[in-house]
Structure formats: structure tokens, C-alpha cells
Design brief:
single chain, mainly alpha, about 0% strand
């Protein structure tokens, strides 16, 4: 109970100075990680025991369900906001290539590691999330199109990678899981189909009912806001009851809901869901800080550290650069999109789910990889974005002087 109360105090304290901290390039995620680390160091293994329980898993999945739903419906201007071709290259070429390369590197660095475990770790460390560098979206020192594409990618990549994560989790486990890729696929396909059915039907039905009630004047702005918090939880619950994957259903529910809404949910209607998802994300960052202490018990595993750093750099930059060749994105902007790929809530949730679901060294290795990747991202992207922006600004100023 004490860690929970401390987390609440820290969040309240952060809310009072969030504007000032933002100007100092200190996000809420960084504050919560530091607080979590302090608590983790003073509570021994109690946090780890709490995470590794059956009760923790649905709680973590519910948080991801809400985050995925909000991500799916927040992209403005259609599904890809006028960047369909470029966005699809990032999501369907660059991201799968990053996962494949991370899997191969994991097997190369740790030959004893099963391919299923390497694939699972790749799914954990690959999806990008703008939370550690939230100011990036509003930082006008970066090109508008770069920020726009990163925002679209951040909204969709975790939902797209989720089915592969489920497959890898099924394949990577012990006797409770599949013994071969074919068996893992046999388990994953029905789960994915139920998720598609539950998410699509609930999203479409909820949107149609919302359209009807708005036309008839039966709903209020407040009631619509409340519904947007509960709809993804409903999709999650129904999918799980049917044997499907809850967070995949929530993501598809968001896509279906957005497609069927007559005018699309406005900023005012999304406000409550945004705030609740932001609070949930802060909670996950605190839990991450607490859990990060657990990896210190494993010592320095250089192979996993190399894999984590590679995932943040070369395994992100090279696939993005290659995927955007022969587009109207210039070399500098291709490099920027590759460099500006922070890791955040999706990696944390995937890592915690794997830690909860698996046993022994496999669970510890996955948690270790997630922790090193996200901590390194907090440092590199949380503090480094401002430096990159300053360097970019100086180059632009120098070009202007040469032109003059």
C-alpha cells in the first residue's frame, strides 16, 4: 500500500510543476521512473512478487487496451492523415525488418536462446512510443512532417505488433505453452480471430449507437467522454471471455469505432480518455521504475545490453532509412525519423506481461532487455531530443547565413 500512496503523492506533485519541468525537458515519465527506482531499492523483492501474479496480468492488459484504443482513434485526417504510403512503409516494412534483425541479433549474441524467446524480446524492444519524449510532437524545431509521421507510427505500431507478440509469447514459454511454431500458430490464430470479431463488432456497434444518440440529442458531451473510456474495456473483456486477445481487440475496436463515427470523436470527447490513459501511462512508468531494480540482481549481461542499444540505434535507423528510400522524404528527415524512435509504455507493458506469463531465466532475460532498452531510451530520447533540436537549429541558421 505504501508504494501506491507514494506514487500518488509523486503524481500530484508532478501535476503542480508539469509545465516548468516540461520546459526543462523533464517529462512525467522521467519523474515516475526515478520515483519507482527509489521505491524499488527500498522494498527489496516485494514489487517483483506483486508483478508476478495472476491479478497483475489483467490489470496491465486493461491499461494497454485503453492506450491502444486511444492511439487508434486519435490520428487526425483519416487513418494515416494524408501520409498513407509513407506511414505504411514505416509500419509494414521498417518495423517487421527491425523485429527480424533484432531476433537474429539475439540468437547470434546468445546462441543458447531459443528463437521464440529472441522473437519475444524483439517484439518487446521494437515498438516506439513518444511518451519519454512527449515534447517532440510540439517542438517546432523539428520538421512538421517528421513529427507528424512519428505521431502516426507511435499510434499504430504497438497494435500491429501485438499479434506477433502473442504468437512469440505462446512459442517462448515452458510446458504451459506451445512446443513448436505450428502449435503456437494453432493457438494464436483462434485467439486473433476472436479478437478481430469482438473488437470490430463492438467498435462498429458503439459508433453507430453514438451516432444515433447524438443525432437525437440523447447523449451529452460528458456521457460520450465516459463511453470512450469504457468501450475499450468492454472490447477487452468480451474478447477474453471468447478466448481472444484483449488488447488486440481494443486496438481493432478503436479503428472500427473511428471508421463508423459520422464526424469522428472531437478533442472535447476524447479529453477524459486522454487524461485517464495519461494517468495509466504514468502508473506504468512508476511500476517500470520499481521493476527495473530487479534486473540488478542479474548483474551485467553484456549481450542483452548490446541488443537493447542496437534496437534503439542501428536496428531502428537502418530499417527506417531503407524503407523510406524512393519516397519524397529527404535523407536528413529519413535519418531523423530513425533516430527519434523512443521506447515507452508499449515496451513496458509487453515486458511485464512476458515476465508475468513466463518462468525462470526466460522471464528474467525478457524483463532485463525491456528495462535496459527503456532506461536507455529515457536517457537518449528524454534528454537527447533537445540537443538534436539545437544542432538542427544551428545547421538551419548556418544555411540561412550562407544564403544571405
Amino acid at each position: 500500500m505504501t508504494p501506491a500512496l507514494i506514487a500518488i503523492v509523486v503524481i500530484v506533485g508532478w501535476t503542480l510543476v508539469a509545465g516548468r519541468l516540461s520546459r526543462l525537458q523533464i517529462s512525467g515519465a522521467i519523474v515516475m521512473v526515478v520515483a519507482g527506482l527509489v521505491i524499488g531499492l527500498t522494498t527489496n523483492n516485494s514489487i517483483g512478487n506483486a508483478l508476478d501474479t495472476d491479478a497483475a496480468e489483467p490489470f496491465v492488459e486493461l491499461i494497454l487496451a485503453l492506450l491502444l484504443f486511444v492511439d487508434a482513434i486519435e490520428v487526425r485526417g483519416g487513418y494515416f492523415a494524408g501520409e498513407r504510403r509513407t506511414s505504411l512503409r514505416l509500419l509494414l516494412i521498417a518495423m517487421p525488418l527491425s523485429v527480424a534483425l533484432a531476433t537474429l541479433l539475439g540468437v547470434a549474441l546468445l546462441p543458447s536462446m531459443a528463437v521464440g524467446v529472441a522473437l519475444l524480446i524483439a517484439c518487446v524492444v521494437t515498438p516506439m512510443d513518444l511518451t519519454p519524449a512527449s515534447s517532440l510532437v510540439r517542438d517546432r524545431r523539428f520538421p512538421t512532417r517528421v513529427r507528424h509521421l512519428l505521431n502516426i507510427e507511435s499510434g499504430y505500431n504497438d497494435g500491429i505488433i501485438a499479434p506477433l507478440f502473442v504468437f512469440a509469447l505462446t512459442l517462448a514459454g515452458d510446458h504451459k505453452h506451445a512446443s513448436s511454431p505450428a502449435e503456437a500458430l494453432e493457438q494464436a490464430v483462434p485467439s486473433a480471430l476472436w479478437a478481430v470479431l469482438a473488437g470490430s463488432v463492438i467498435g462498429l456497434l458503439a459508433a453507430r449507437l453514438t451516432n444515433f444518440t447524438i443525432r437525437r440529442g440523447l447523449a451529452t458531451e460528458q456521457s460520450i467522454r465516459i463511453s470512450l473510456v469504457l468501450i475499450p474495456i468492454l472490447a477487452y473483456g468480451c474478447s477474453v471471455q471468447l478466448g481472444g486477445n484483449g488488447f488486440v481487440a481494443a486496438f481493432l475496436c478503436g479503428i472500427a469505432y473511428k471508421a463508423a463515427r459520422a464526424d469522428g470523436p472531437g478533442d472535447e470527447q476524447l479529453r477524459l480518455a486522454d487524461d485517464v490513459s495519461a494517468l495509466a501511462a504514468l502508473t506504468m512508468w512508476f511500476v517500470f521504475g520499481c521493476a527495473a531494480v530487479l534486473v540488478f540482481e542479474l548483474g551485467f549481461v553484456w549481450q542483452i545490453v548490446v541488443l537493447a542499444l542496437a534496437a534503439l540505434t542501428v536496428l531502428r535507423i537502418v530499417p527506417v532509412y531503407l524503407a523510406l528510400l524512393r519516397t519524397d522524404i529527404g535523407p536528413r528527415d529519413r535519418l531523423l525519423i530513425g533516430v527519434l524512435g523512443p521506447r515507452g509504455t508499449a515496451s513496458i507493458v509487453f515486458g511485464l506481461l512476458a515476465f508475468n506469463e513466463l518462468d525462470g531465466m526466460v522471464a528474467n532475460e525478457t524483463l532485463y532487455a525491456m528495462t535496459v532498452t527503456v532506461l536507455a531510451s529515457v536517457v537518449l530520447h528524454g534528454f537527447g531530443v533537445g540537443l538534436v533540436a539545437q544542432r538542427l537549429n544551428r545547421r538551419e541558421a548556418a544555411k540561412d547565413l550562407e544564403f544571405d
